[in-house]
Amino acid sequence: MTTGAPLPHDSALAHCTGAARFADDIPDPPGLLHAALVLSPVARAAGFALDDTGARAVEGFVALLDAAAIPARNDISPTGKGGEPLLADGPLRHHGQPLAMVLATTRDAALRAAAAVKVAPRDPAAPCLDIEDALAREDFLMPPQVIARGDAAAAIAAAPLTARGEFRAGGQEHFYLEGQVAIAVPEEDGSLAITSSTQHPTEVQHIAARILGCDFNRITVTCRRMGGGFGGKESNASWVAAAAALGARATGRPVKLRLARKADMAATGKRHPFLFRWQAGFDASGRILALEALLAADGGHSLDLTPGVVFRALTHALNCYDVPDVRLTALALRTDTVSHTAFRGFGGPQGVLLMEDVIRAVARATGLSPEAVRERNFAGAPNDARTPYGQALEGDLIRRVWAECMADSAWESRRAEIAAFNARHPFLRRGLGSFALAFGISFGVRHLNQAGALVHVYADGSIRLNHGGTEMGQGLNIKVAQVVAESFGVPLERIRVTATSTAEVPNTAPTAASTGSDLNGWAARNAALAIRGRMAEAASALWDVPPEAIAFEQGRVRVARPGDNRAMAFGALAHHCWLERISLSATGFYRTPDIHWDAKTMRGEPFFYFSYGAATAEVLVDRLTGEHRVLRADLVQDCGRSLNPAVDRGQIEGAFVQGLGWLTCEELVWDAEGRLRTLGPSTYKIPGSRDAPPDLRIRLLADAPARADTIFRSKAVGEPPLMLATAVWNALRDATGVERLDLPATPERVLMALMQEGAASPRP
Amino acid sequence: MPGRIRFTLNGKDLALPGQTPPAITLLDWLRGPGGLPGTKEGCAEGDCGACTIVIEEPDGTRSPANACLMLLGQAAGRAIRTVEGLRAADGGAHPVARILAAHDGTQCGFCTPGIVMAAWAYTRMGGDAHEALAGNLCRCTGYRPILDALGAMEDDGAPPPLAHDPPAEIATATQRFFLPRTVAEAVALRAAHPGAWLLAGGTDLNLRVSEHREQPPLVISLQAIPRLRRLEVTAGGIEAGSAAPYARLLEACEADADFAPLAGLLRRLGSRQIRALGTLGGNLGTASPIGDALPPLIALGATVTLASPRGERAMPVEHFLTGYRSTALAVDEIITRIGIPRPPPGAFLACEKLSRRHDQDIATVGLSVLLAFADGVVREARIAHGGCGPRAARAAGAEAALLGKPFDTSAAERAAQALEAEITPQSDLRGSAAYRRAAAGNLLRRLALRAPGIFAIEAPHHPVFAA
């Protein structure tokens, strides 16, 4: 079996020798111009004027393009609804907003010329930067979304016990190591070839065409690999590429736009910050009877992908728990900051925080452990398995990942050991936290749940595979190649995966929502099966046996009947097919079955299936400084029947550490003028190697093939494990005993929370 | 007589064309004219490590460095290796690359060339793997596979290539890059070109090129002056040339138990890449209130020596720092050496640093404490803070609170309260004033409570301290 084998990433050695080429590594095409952006120096103003005298004096300056240079629609909105200009064409709406683009013969000249452009904002105003301010102004980006079941208010009023809470979670910068970059090369007939570091080549094509006012067939978008994406190159890559396309159209020369790190961090969206307020009714057994909650997302200045992010936060707000009477309201607030966007988990990580706060409060009020409260409220028998929007969770799988994780982590014995440590140490405290997850897999937007692939078998039996997904390090190409190798019964070495291109597979979905291998794996398999079917017929004619009797295994094709030893190499059959004029090329297509959603009633089954996981974490906290460290984490993740356990393990531990960063050390700091002050790794601190748990135990749930008809019964893995890091938040609250601990729980937040709750002085 | 830029690149001697500007970054040269795009730009500020290359020192030392923070002129005379030049004897992939790939140590692959180079240096230099990786960010893997791979790698034993002397000056039509050999030459150049950049390691100054795309017309590099790169450990302490890289200072402190707490702090100063280039002289000249090395220098009573055409003068570091990023350095002066006295016998030294991330982060608060004892009581106290005011400075109130008494929790409490009262921290992106004040006091309290734990910065277990 090729599927299920722990094979390394297909580019692993090329990465390590430096041979793997990223967009900026491609040799410059002749006549290349470099672009640099002029960014808004203020967060809010009625308008602006540009003075490019200084820029024109820079040697190598070629052109300055502003909104007036856009031939068609100045609109980069993923929805196409407008309100999101590529280059500002009126009011300034956030610090770092692109206003104009300078083209020059060298990158240095472009950057210097862009810096020399003087921007005069007209009527600058104090920006609105905070969710609460925006709430007070009722400045919404979209109508509220509400999911309700029963009568939550009445049930809370009738409940024996009640609690309420409020907390905040910050945003997160993607910090893909490779910044945004695109190269647009004019071809004949006004066509453009764009190389883009993008998760969504089709959207790059659409938006470039929208900006230029041309048919989609004039734009070809290619992406061999990204140096990380994490959602940050889902919609944001499109405008970077569209800007390069604009430059190429305006000058007739190739144009490269590569954002310097600071420009990238100033001009591209982040994970949405959230504010949560809730009240709950429960009983002394810890059963949560009713919950009313507000999830308020800071969407930044424009819509971007916020509706989807809010939808996922809302549908994941109860996570894997059942609450009979519930009213969940999600708001998207407009602030004068960069437009927040997709980030691994897409609102799910924020949504699942809600029940963690509720569970801790219930535990506190009832004297139960948070773990007991979890168990009491898991969805599925004896509780209801249905989410408030009507889709059923698999209670048995929730309980299985939970039980296995608790057993792995030796919870009870460590509890005792930790209590003993805490009793004797003057200022260090250890704490334990847990978490369980049910994460829905599928795009919330129905039409994105489709994929295509293009497979060629050449006359020597070698296979060229192209699919609509993009490779950003997640190992999609190796997984899809494994699927195709399996389908043809050939060794993996016979498969060559080529760069994603809108010219090979059109009308694709972004590689996002953890669906890359689910969608593209099936599409590639369908293409492979179509070719294999034709090859089987050819073999059947050759050997005069029914096509069903032809087997493809281990690089050979044979008659699978007792006593019949006829066989040939796969390549020999391919050659035979060629001679017999049989097509060895096919496209494959896939659309996710059985998903539906009614936006009016907010009911439906939007997810093809759920991915389950559980985690425990142990932390050490210095009560005098707030410094902390994760000492150990135990994770159990449901990957169905994993296509590639090595890749999945990499996704799990990488996502966990990224989630840990979001929850503990990655802090976005805006100043009062709306300037993001954390504009590079010197100020924005993602986890380093020492910050990963030194003892990280990961287990893929065994013997758990997906129940839905997924590709080889595997399950998605890109996003869910990021949320397992939530266990660290719980462990920090366990170690400190503080009631409210906003996120990210930096050393400062931990110490200040301790001080506010009067606990920061050392034991006498 | 101006010369061309010559250096050894991937084992081969290379002389660049005459008009190659010396004050562009090595990274831009590698990726552009050098035709070697394996080395990546991730941040252009020396924090992500994607551009890590290795300087192969003549003594076999391998110094990883950030190509984004090195000017091409700084490569002159040195031997540089990039990921493209790391090959096995048969020309295939080097074992370091093979082992990292085999451990699933790459996902997106963009940080990977930098990690490969840091790892190749680590196979020779050893030490703590986290410390060796502190200058390399990976956003995909969570680091575990990389750490596993590091554990499986070995030194390939490759000898350093030959290095040669750089020219005294590299000049183009628009840039002059001076590499004086003596302090006298440097001082004369400084007098002749008061507007020139005075370049020590460049880990701060070169951001103006790397990020802000400046093109300095005149640069005086101190890296080729043997006297300024000298570092001596004597019975009296450490005498460091102002251009001796931190890596050398750390090496000296690690080998000398009296300076072990300083070694602990230096291991958190930047990264190996930063310490390969960064210098004490640079840290003093920049005079940032959060310069990591400043509080310990003040606490230890270090002196700084300055040279000018008028001769030399020396002064305590605490007097040299006059305000926010300002110093007593006159326009015609250069910093030549720093004298760090050895702590008196039986003294207690602690060099604390608080930052959002343990490694490779700028301090939110720095606090260094030197206590000398007589008859069980504190005879002399020198407490210096950073990040708690416009400049790194001593805390006279806290010092006074400790004098004449044993160093115990109640003395620490009094001193902490005095410290909290006398510092004037500001709120900025690294922390609020309230947090800095509370944390500074608590760092002092913690010294009296310190028990072995992960946050201990290798404090010596002095009898008074341990009591």
From TrEMBL, chain A:
Pfam family, one: MoCoBD_1
Signal peptide as annotated in the record: none
Keywords assigned by UniProt, alphabetized: Molybdenum, Oxidoreductase
InterPro entries to which the protein is assigned, alphabetical: Ald_Oxase/Xan_DH_a/b (IPR000674), Ald_Oxase/Xan_DH_a/b_sf (IPR036856), Ald_Oxase/xanthine_DH-like (IPR016208), AldOxase/xan_DH_MoCoBD1 (IPR008274), AldOxase/xan_DH_MoCoBD2 (IPR046867), AldOxase/xan_DH_Mopterin-bd_sf (IPR037165), Xanthine_DH_Mopterin-bd_su (IPR014309)
Enzyme Commission number: 1.17.1.4
Residues covered by the Aldehyde oxidase/xanthine dehydrogenase a/b hammerhead domain: 17-125
Molecular-function annotations in GO: iron ion binding; molybdenum ion binding; xanthine dehydrogenase activity
Top enzyme category: oxidoreductase
Coiled-coil zones: none
SUPFAM superfamilies: CO dehydrogenase molybdoprotein N-domain-like, Molybdenum cofactor-binding domain
Co-factor requirement: Mo-molybdopterin cytosine dinucleotide
Protein name (database record): Xanthine dehydrogenase large subunit
Species of provenance: Neoroseomonas alkaliterrae
TrEMBL record, chain B:
Alphabetized UniProt keyword annotations: FAD, Flavoprotein, Iron, Metal-binding, Oxidoreductase
Ranges for domain 2Fe-2S ferredoxin-type: 3-86
Protein name in the entry: Xanthine dehydrogenase small subunit
One of the record's GO molecular function terms: 2 iron, 2 sulfur cluster binding
Annotated ranges, domain FAD-binding PCMH-type: 170-345
Record InterPro entries: 2Fe-2S-bd, 2Fe-2S-bd_dom_sf, 2Fe-2S_ferredoxin-like_sf, 2Fe-2S_ferredoxin-type, 2Fe2S_fd_BS, Ald_Oxase/xanthine_DH-like, Beta-grasp_dom_sf, CO_DH_flav_C
Organism classification: Bacteria, Pseudomonadati, Pseudomonadota, Alphaproteobacteria, Acetobacterales
Cross-referenced Gene3D superfamilies: 3.10.20.30, 3.30.465.10, [2Fe-2S]-binding domain (1.10.150.120), CO dehydrogenase flavoprotein, C-terminal domain (3.30.390.50), Uridine Diphospho-n-acetylenolpyruvylglucosamine Reductase, domain 2 (3.30.43.10)
This protein's record includes keyword Metal-binding: yes
The keyword Ribonucleoprotein is annotated on this UniProt entry: no
EC number(s) given by UniProt: 1.17.1.4
Pfam family, one: CO_deh_flav_C
Coiled coil: none
PROSITE patterns reported in the protein's UniProt record: 2FE2S_FER_1, 2FE2S_FER_2, FAD_PCMH
Organism: Neoroseomonas alkaliterrae
Enzyme class: oxidoreductase
Highest taxon, organism lineage: Bacteria
